[in-house]
């Protein structure tokens, strides 16, 4: 039987957990494009993603998930524009303990929805941090609280494989049966 390939984009602001997610779940050594940053982000994090992170994972036999971690910085938006048209689904990671970046999650959602109609899952990361916002607060910040058809929110810990698998199961089910998301 032929192996089916499903492509999934992993988006989110710097520090949201994109590289960790791909590294934790990938069946191969990830193609890690982290480079030392030279700009203001260096204050926050000494490495940042400058191109795409890439990893793959087989959730079920005869199916391979290709995972693309998108760059977290707006200046790479042109790559985003190309990538988002090639994927079957998208995970938007939102760092729950950095409310100052919630607007960035909203921008990503708008960016994706304006270009493609694919299942989107919002993965709330850093929920184990004591200062994390609640899912309800984040839903309000992302203006999802009263929309009739909203992407599902799920807590995802990008450092824990079991947590990522749960999210990937929801997303792959939605790819197969789009009406469930
Ligand atoms: N405690 C905790 N740490 C996390 C979580 N998600 C990511 N991290 C950590 O946050 C840091 C930034 O993650 P990284 O994957 O580099 O973010 P990226 O910029 O989106 O690629 C790393 O040290 C991760 O281990 C989470 O849910 N909980
Ligand atoms: Mg990264």
TrEMBL record:
One family name in Pfam for this protein: ATP_bind_1
UniProtKB keywords: GTP-binding, Hydrolase, Nucleotide-binding
InterPro entries from the UniProt entry: Gliding_Motility_GTPase (IPR052705), Gpn (IPR004130), P-loop_NTPase (IPR027417)
UniProt record similarity statement: Belongs to the GPN-loop GTPase family.
Stated name of the protein: ATP/GTP-binding protein
Organism: Calothrix parietina FACHB-288
């Amino acid at each position: 039987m032929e192996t089916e390939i499903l492509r999934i984009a992993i988006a989110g602001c710097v520090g949201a957990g994109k590289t960790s997610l791909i590294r934790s779940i990938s069946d191969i050594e990830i193609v890690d494009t982290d480079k030392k940053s030279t700009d203001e982000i260096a204050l926050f994090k000494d490495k940042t993603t400058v191109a795409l992170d890439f990893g793959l994972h087989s959730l079920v036999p005869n199916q391979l998930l290709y995972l693309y971690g998108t760059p977290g910085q707006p200046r790479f938006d042109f790559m985003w524009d190309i990538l988002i048209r090639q994927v079957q689904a998208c995970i938007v990671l939102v760092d729950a303990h950095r409310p100052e970046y919630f607007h960035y999650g909203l921008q990503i959602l708008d960016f994706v929805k304006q270009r493609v109609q694919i299942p989107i899952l919002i993965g709330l990361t850093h929920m184990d941090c004591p200062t994390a916002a609640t899912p309800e607060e984040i839903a309000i910040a992302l203006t999802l609280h009263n929309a009739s058809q909203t992407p599902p929110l799920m807590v995802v810990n990008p450092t824990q494989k079991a947590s990522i698998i749960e999210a990937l199961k929801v997303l792959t089910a939605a790819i197969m049966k789009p009406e469930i998301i």
